[in-house]
Amino acid sequence: MCQKGRPIKNVQVWRVAAEGGEPERLELTVDEMWWLRVHPDGRRVATGAMKGTIEVWALENFLPKPAAAAGAKAKD
């Protein structure tokens, strides 16, 4: 399914009834498909897809403020 070690990009998924009929496009697109295998029973299909991203997040001031010191009254 891949060409020269590269995935096929933006693969649209379709289905066709075994008895024939018009192909039907499913609302599914695979960003990077590496392989597609049909099970010997003909009823199941497996695909391998991978898209890796690396993200670094910095979170600041997201925790609640600490509770008031013991014995102090909370403000209304």
Largest sheet entry? 3 strands, antiparallel
Q: Write out the strand line-up for the largest beta sheet, numbering strands in chain order.
A: 1-2-3
Q: Indicate the low-confidence ranges by residue numbers.
A: none
Taking all Cα atoms into account, the compactness measure Rg is 26 Å
SSE sequence, one letter per element: EEE
Beta-strand percentage range: 35-45%
In one word, what is the shape? elongated
N-to-C span: 65 Å
Please give the share of residues in helix: under 10%
**Tally of DSSP β-strands:** 3
Helical stretch count?
A: 0
- Class per helix and strand makeup: mainly beta
Mean pLDDT over the residues: 74
Explained architecture:
This protein is mostly beta strands. It has a domain at 8-49. It has no helices and three strands. Strands 1-2-3 form a three-stranded antiparallel sheet, with no helix packed on it. The chain is elongated and about 70 Å long. The termini are far apart.
